[in-house]
Structure to design on (717 residues):
């Protein structure tokens, strides 16, 4: 009994400037793990330019959902369209336009920040000059030639964020991006992956307050099913997801 | 795809150059095994079939080491995701890994074969060097192709260090059959390349077959 | 219950096996050189041939699974390989017995079929450990299919390699088949081969339906558990009026 119009999250007054297709359109998504259902009957629509927060306890399916959107996992049932492309059929075209920042920064520890970003740039067909720009933006030019294993976790996370936006993606998928970052570090990253970046974002988090502060809409998952989907309603969400 | 394969290959070579783990270990291992064979066989010098056998068994066992480590940089910190998220043809990963393994094997042989000549071989290596190199290269290509496939298969298993040797060694039995048969007359006192062409052809066939198989199935291995 | 055609298939198999046994013991002539023990050839070689075909079939099913993602193909592949491994053990055992009786050694390196089988057996011994060392069922099936395809291609390549290098010093009955096996032996051999193939097919169908039933049972159980979970009331949920659409546990 999913009322689709109530599940569509739109910015007030956004008349769909330019892109008419929503950033994300999911219908009855199912993803199994063996016989267990990691995600079951998940439906939502997210218009461009907005931020969707995903709340839920451990094992609720948040990371699974993110990985499906990132094309790392294929849907077992239902339909998933990301930036107008159907998954898994058109996954290739999606990868170039989506940025993913998980718990791990996905860096090679023996290579330096610059080398890691240059490698990613080559994979994505992005000009090398952009690497320099990003290193400056995250404030790591001075340590750009040190191997990643010599850097702190916070620095690695910053490089990971740079890697996620290296190819200027339209959609950002972020899994607890603030973990391991002090407020100063987060301030540097904010224009890249925060609200002011202007990108469409899906933000997985444990933190109800952060979700309320940053998101245009919130999806709450429990045991793989949608328990809440709508605007950030502080009272309800705190009741549902108080740790 | 070439761009992606070259990028991944370059990344792997750069890391190997810096850590210097795989190739030196394979070389050291080979020389140690030669010493073991000396004591195990109680022979000072070998020729013909025994020499070919010792050389090839040693090289194959060293290959197992190389294959086990092929995806080590990706295994750390979920680095495979980084490759999977990129808009690249996933077969490029196989191409890069197989090319890297081929390079490691060739480098290994630059050390191991002279060591073998010095420690154990009773006949003159230089006289048959071109033919021996041909056999080595033909065999290495097949080993690299199958090795990269097995390495990818083993990435996700719990018993990785067991699965690699148990899976790889039977699969490369045809390689040792052909390579040893081709090498035996080269290392015999008479040093005549008997039927070299036939065995090289067989190795070439094996290479082609398993390159095709790897390319056909590799994509499916990485997807989820 | 066992799929269509199982009853006639098993009856046909029983008939064929009985016929083959009768022919082996009463119809086929006694071999001049090797005596009675030579009759083990009628089990050994059909086992080897059917086993080889079984491994290749496992590879084909594996490839179909990779292409379609349908786990039914993976199941077929698994059963085919499983049965062929059993046959491989039989080949090695009957081969050893035959070798000991004919040539005095439990093992001979000059028989390409036998040595090929040793290598193939060693390879396929990894199949189940490989499967069970991967926990995610989808990944497990995919890795197993890749293995099945690679190993299935390997089987003929390996056989060619071994044949190419082993010098044929002992008379192999298979080669004498082309160069003048008496008609009675040839017919008996063919009947034995057909019987072995039918036996394989019957056992394959049997094991397949057994496994399918077990999977169906697990699936139903999992659904029951899920339904039980869902009907428990959620701890904090109190439907507030005017809240955004929340799909209640339907």
């Amino acid at each position: 009994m999913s009322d689709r119009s109530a599940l569509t999250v739109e910015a007030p007054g956004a008349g769909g400037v330019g892109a008419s297709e929503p950033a994300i359109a999911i219908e009855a998504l199912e993803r199994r793990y063996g016989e267990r259902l990691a995600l079951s009957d998940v439906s939502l629509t997210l218009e461009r330019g907005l931020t969707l927060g995903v709340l839920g306890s451990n094992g609720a399916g948040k990371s699974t959902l993110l990985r499906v959107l990132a094309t790392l996992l294929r849907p077992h049932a239902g339909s998933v369209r990301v930036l107008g492309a159907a998954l898994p059929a058109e996954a290739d075209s999606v990868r170039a336009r989506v940025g993913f920042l998980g718990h791990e920064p996905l860096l090679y520890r023996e290579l330096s920040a610059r080398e890691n970003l240059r490698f990613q740039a080559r994979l994505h067909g992005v000009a090398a000059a952009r690497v320099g720009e990003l290193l400056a933006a995250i404030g790591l030019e001075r340590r750009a030639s040190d191997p990643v294993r010599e850097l702190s976790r916070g620095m690695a996370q910053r490089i990971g964020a740079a890697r996620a936006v290296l190819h200027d993606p339209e959609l950002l998928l972020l899994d607890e991006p603030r973990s391991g970052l002090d407020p100063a570090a987060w301030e540097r990253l904010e224009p890249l992956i925060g609200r002011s970046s202007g990108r469409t974002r899906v933000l997985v988090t444990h933190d109800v307050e952060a979700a309320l502060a940053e998101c245009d809409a919130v999806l709450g998952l429990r045991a793989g099913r949608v328990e809440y989907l709508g605007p950030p309603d502080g009272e309800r969400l705190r009741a549902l997801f108080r740790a | 795809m070439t761009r992606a394969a070259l990028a991944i290959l370059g990344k792997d070579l750069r890391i190997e150059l810096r850590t210097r783990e795989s190739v030196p270990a394979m070389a050291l291992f080979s020389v140690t095994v030669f010493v073991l064979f000396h004591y195990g066989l109680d022979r000072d010098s070998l020729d013909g079939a025994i020499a070919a056998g010792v050389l090839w068994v040693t090289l194959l066992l060293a290959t197992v080491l190389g294959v086990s480590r092929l995806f080590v940089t990706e295994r750390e910190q979920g680095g495979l995701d980084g490759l999977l998220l990129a808009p690249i043809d996933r077969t490029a990963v196989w191409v890069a890994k197989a090319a890297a393994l081929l390079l490691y094997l060739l480098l290994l042989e630059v050390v191991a074969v002279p060591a073998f000549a010095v420690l154990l071989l009773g006949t003159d290596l230089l006289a048959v060097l071109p033919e021996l190199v041909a056999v080595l290269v033909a065999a290495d290509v097949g080993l690299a192709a199958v090795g990269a496939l097995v390495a990818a298969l083993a990435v996700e298993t719990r018993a990785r260090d067991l699965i690699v040797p148990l899976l790889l060694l039977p699969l490369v039995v045809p390689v040792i059959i052909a390579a040893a048969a081709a090498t035996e007359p080269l290392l015999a006192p008479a040093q005549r390349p008997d039927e070299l062409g036939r065995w090289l052809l067989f190795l070439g066939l094996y290479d082609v077959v398993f390159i095709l198989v790897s390319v056909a199935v590799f994509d499916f291995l990485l997807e989820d | 219950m066992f799929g269509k055609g199982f009853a006639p298939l098993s009856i046909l198999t029983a008939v064929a096996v009985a016929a083959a046994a009768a022919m082996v013991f009463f119809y086929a002539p006694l071999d001049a050189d090797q005596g009675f023990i030579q009759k083990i050839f009628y089990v050994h070689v059909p086992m080897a041939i059917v086993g080889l075909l079984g491994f290749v079939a496992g590879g084909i099913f594996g490839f179909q699974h990779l292409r379609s993602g349908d786990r039914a193909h993976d199941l077929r592949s698994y059963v085919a390989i499983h049965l062929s491994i059993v046959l491989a053990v039989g080949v090695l055992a009957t081969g050893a017995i035959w070798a000991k009786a004919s040539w005095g050694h439990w093992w001979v390196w000059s028989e390409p079929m036998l040595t090929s089988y040793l290598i193939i057996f060693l390879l396929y011994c990894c199949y189940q450990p490989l499967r069970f060392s991967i926990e995610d069922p989808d990944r497990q099936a995919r890795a197993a299919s890749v293995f099945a395809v690679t190993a299935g291609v390997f089987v003929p390549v390996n056989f060619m390699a071994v044949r190419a290098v082993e010098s044929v010093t002992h008379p192999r009955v298979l080669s004498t088949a082309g160069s003048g096996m008496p008609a009675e032996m040839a017919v008996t051999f063919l009947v034995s081969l057909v019987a072995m193939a039918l036996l394989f097919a019957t056992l394959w169908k049997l094991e397949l339906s057994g496994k399918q039933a077990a999977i169906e049972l697990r699936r139903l159980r999992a659904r029951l558990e899920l339904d039980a979970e869902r009907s428990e009331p959620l701890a904090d949920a109190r439907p507030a009026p005017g809240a955004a659409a929340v799909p209640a546990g339907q």
